[in-house]
């Protein structure tokens, strides 16, 4: 290779590099991030810069964080109040539950004060079905233990009904890959019925053709028998 060829090769290599760097520079210029903004947007207004968009996003997040913090602080105070109130409520309900089976004192209800339920031993008396005060040991009043027993019986009955419903569902739908349900069997019967009807409809033309051919053969046989009889009579003469 002489120096002329080497020079031409280097010039071509320089041209290729120039084109690559020019394309690179054009791509960076056209796809650059417009941090400060400026120029005209799609609607003709001043384009919003990336810095402005990020600043607005940060402001919106700060506002949401402030609202969440305020709600968290308020709810934290409310939860602490409830936690302080819990021992009093537990003692109150324990005394009321004990009174259901231990004495005949009137059963009192909770009262509302400042939009919340307040434990008040001297609250309004709960009236029974006859309009009188409901006592813990009235003959028509179900004791707490009896109510628990009734609830447990209802739970067991509900479990039985749920189990029966699951069995019926399994019987209807079947178990995929193991047993077929009534739906699958009914679908198979309907499919077999449709296929049978289709086969009968397909065979009807053949049946009609065979019936027509049979009638023609019977007529042909009658005609041939008549011809045979005529030939026999002619032979006797």
Walk me through this protein's architecture.
The protein has 237 residues and is mainly α. The protein has a domain of 52 residues. The chain contains four helices and four strands; from the N terminus they run ααββαββα. The strands form two sheets. The chain has a two-stranded antiparallel sheet. A two-stranded antiparallel ribbon has the order 3-4. Strand 1 and strand 2 form a beta hairpin. The longest helix is centred in the last third of the chain and has 55 residues. It is flat. The chain starts with a helix and ends with a helix. About 4% of the residues have low confidence.
Summarize it.
The chain has helices at 3-30, 50-102, 144-173, 182-236; strands at 111-112, 117-118, 174-175, 179-180.
Q: Low-confidence stretches at least 5 residues in length (pLDDT < 50)?
A: 134-142
Q: State Rg.
A: 49 Å
Helix percentage range = over 70%
Looking across the biggest beta sheet, what order are the strands in? 1-2
Number of helices: 4
Name the helix and strand elements from N-terminus to C-terminus, one letter apiece.
Answer: HHEEHEEH
- Percent in strands: under 5%
> How far from one another are the termini?
127 Å
Described by the principal axes of the CA atoms, the overall outline is flat
Number of strands: 4
